[in-house]
Amino acid sequence: MISQTSNYHRFQPHPHINLHCLRRQFLLKSSEETETLDLNLKHKVEKIGINFDSSTPGQYTHQICPLCKGGQSKERSLSFHVNQNEKVAIWRCFNFECGWAGHVLADGVNKVKFSKKLGEKTLRLEPLGDELINYFAERMISAEILQKNAVMQMVDDKNVIAFTYRWKGEIVNCKFRSITTRKFWQAKHGKRILYGLDGIKEGNTIVIVEGEIDKLSMDEAGVVNCVSVPDGAPQQVSKKQDTRFKYLSDCNGYLDKASRIILATDGDGPGQVLAEELSCRLGKERCWLVTWPKKDEGTHCKDANEVLVHLGPEALRHVVETAELYQVKNSP
User: Fold this and answer.
1) What phi-psi label fits residue 253: left (phi over 0), alpha (psi between -120 and 50 degrees) or beta?
2) Please, are residues 312 and 293 in contact by the beta-carbon 8 Å criterion?
3) Which pLDDT tens digit goes with each residue over 154-191?
């Protein structure tokens, strides 16, 4: 987890627009100042099209928004700020037709928000190129499955995968993952949902996995009605109401109508914690749990994609078909 201090910086609105109500607070990461992190922050900012060098740490600058280009008036509508220690960069576009906002940490998860509906143009997405198609091919996931699930890439960085979360055909969330740095960040608008929810059919069985690539792997194996949680697995079971699982209630009753839910979370500790959390919230009496097979003599596969890669699609289907009732499998 990112450690936090009590230091806050408030976002200052564009001088020509009275939007005091839009001011927000940003928690800063507490760490020692190093040149490496500063360069990392600059790289992240410039990768999304913002001119990092135009800013002075601790001050606000205004520049042309790389998304809306200032609208029809070509106004410098993007207010940009880097904190004094150069550990956090924050921005907001005050063009009412854009509303792009977010923050980047020198070391951590980036968050980007929009005031209007997300879209491929707003997020600067394009179809996957050969490099990312080959990346998925190495994981036994075909171009057909990628297209079916509307997996895309960033226009400004061909090494960044964009997993689009869609509801009724519209993007409500997008998770980005760099195949070079292996870091990820999200852009979201509105409710959080399960990945793949828009493609499932109401039926008796729904399969839940821990990540987007595992969901694609299930599709590749012909396992229907599979969805993925949006935020991965927690490290330990929560002893109180945890808002991170709000995506379950945001699924408009799809999960309520399933009489059988197969949990295919990862086989490691966090994956087992996630299975316990989901079963408690969805009802253990209708949850089933998979058993991951051996990959070789010494180790077991830990998730759906490892089974697909090492054992093939038939083996992955067999894993799902032989899942055991959760209460029985976890009984003493």
Assistant:
1) left
2) no
3) 887 889 999 999 988 889 889 989 898 888 878 777 67
